[in-house]
Design goal:
With 317 residues, the protein is of the alpha/beta class. The protein folds into three domains: 1-47, no CATH class; 53-197, 3-Layer(aba) Sandwich (Rossmann fold), CATH 3.40.50; 205-316, Rossmann fold (3-Layer(aba) Sandwich). 42% of the residues lie in helices and 20% in strands. The protein has twelve helices and eleven strands. It has helices spanning 3-13, 18-30, 32-37, 39-43, 46-50, 99-114, 136-150, 169-183, 203-221, 238-249, 273-283, 291-295, and strands spanning 55-64, 70-81, 87-93, 122-127, 159-162, 230-233, 253-254, 256-259, 262-266, 299-303, 314-316. It has a five-stranded mixed beta sheet. Strands 7-6-11 form a three-stranded parallel beta sheet, covered by helices on one side. Helix 10 links the parallel strand 6 and strand 7 (253-254). The chain is globular, with a radius of gyration of 21 Å. The relative contact order is 0.08.
Length: 317
């Protein structure tokens, strides 16, 4: 089958999964020339095999809120491919989570992980549970209930989850605590743990730092460097925090952050105490950026807008 025929067949079989179909189209069209130059890929149906997950687990997650009401969410784990190593990929807790989105993320995780040159497969999981506005005890009860099902299909040589949107060090701690209780072990089955129980140094900063290092390499190809550049950033969570921190260290000036409520523009730059304040915002569970302008008078809040209208040298979405 040609790449176009493979994409057409995947679209037919998974017509109710637009995000997954989009990911397959983007990846497969980008490697079409390589596919055609290597007939063995076609002979052994590599693309057809690669586009179907090894297995998908879907389960209910009942949990009790602080008022004593039982709530039910849906949990997922998509184990997509373990050809070169154990499944590896994050857990996402967000109302938008569905099977199509998780298949899209798990599919791309295969390539993302293989390009690190480390022996890791691709997976993704999560739930439509929304941690925003929930108490610590509610989040703990949800995570413990979620792990009651997930623990059966993960392990240090099988599938190693991590954090993602809505799953930070707190959630990882609750998940790992229940995993230890259920398995009577203390193994490295989840990444993103706290430093005092097996976590890694610089783990919180790693993704944002990596993004800035990538920008540096791209600028080198243009004969430039990051020092003195004006940068706009969206979000204000873990990745944005790491990116702002490293960009500022390297002499750039970051002037925006954003949330679902809008974005802030800080003409003086986001540095020092302002970067530390991002951590407090992230920990507040309110998921809004507006409190920044109440704390720092150099900033302006633009309700319901995205930061891309601000003039800059580099935009980091």
């Amino acid at each position: 089958m040609s790449v176009a025929e493979i994409i057409s067949e995947i679209t037919r079989k998974h017509s109710n999964e637009p995000e997954f179909i989009q990911a397959v189209k983007e990846v497969y069209t980008s490697i079409e020339d390589t596919y055609e130059q290597n007939p063995q890929f076609k002979t052994f149906s590599i693309l057809e095999r690669l586009s179907e997950p090894d297995r998908i687990y879907i389960f209910k997650v009942p949990w009790i809120n602080d008022e004593g009401k039982v709530n039910v969410n849906i949990g997922y784990r998509v184990q997509f491919n373990n050809a070169i190593g154990p499944y590896k990929g994050g857990l996402r807790f967000h109302p938008s989570v569905n099977l199509s989105i998780l298949k899209f993320l798990a599919f791309e995780q295969i390539f993302k992980n293989s390009l690190t040159t480390l022996p890791m497969g691709g997976a993704k999981g999560g739930s439509d549970f929304n941690p925003k506005g929930k108490s610590d005890r509610e989040i703990m009860r949800f995570c413990q209930s979620f792990m009651l099902e997930l623990w059966k299909v993960i392990g240090s040589e099988t599938d190693i989850p991590a954090g993602d949107i809505g799953v930070g060090t707190r959630e990882i701690g609750y998940l790992f605590g229940m995993y230890k209780k259920l398995t009577h072990t203390h193994t490295g089955v989840i990444t993103g743990k706290g430093l005092n129980y097996g976590g890694s140094l610089v783990r919180p900063e790693a993704t944002g730092y990596g993004g800035i290092y990538f920008v540096q390499e791209m600028l080198k190809r243009l004969g430039q460097n990051i020092e003195g550049k004006i940068i706009t950033v969206s979000g204000f969570g873990n990745v944005a925090w790491g990116a702002v921190k490293k960009a500022t260290q390297l002499g750039a000036k970051v002037v925006t952050l954003s949330g679902p409520d809008g974005f802030i523009y800080d003409k003086e730059g986001i540095n020092g105490e302002k970067i530390d304040f991002m951590l407090k915002l992230r920990a507040s569970n309110d998921d809004v950026i507006e409190p920044y302008v109440k704390k720092f008078k150099s900033a302006t809040f633009f309700e319901g807008k995205k930061p891309w209208e601000i003039k800059c040298d580099i935009a980091l979405p």
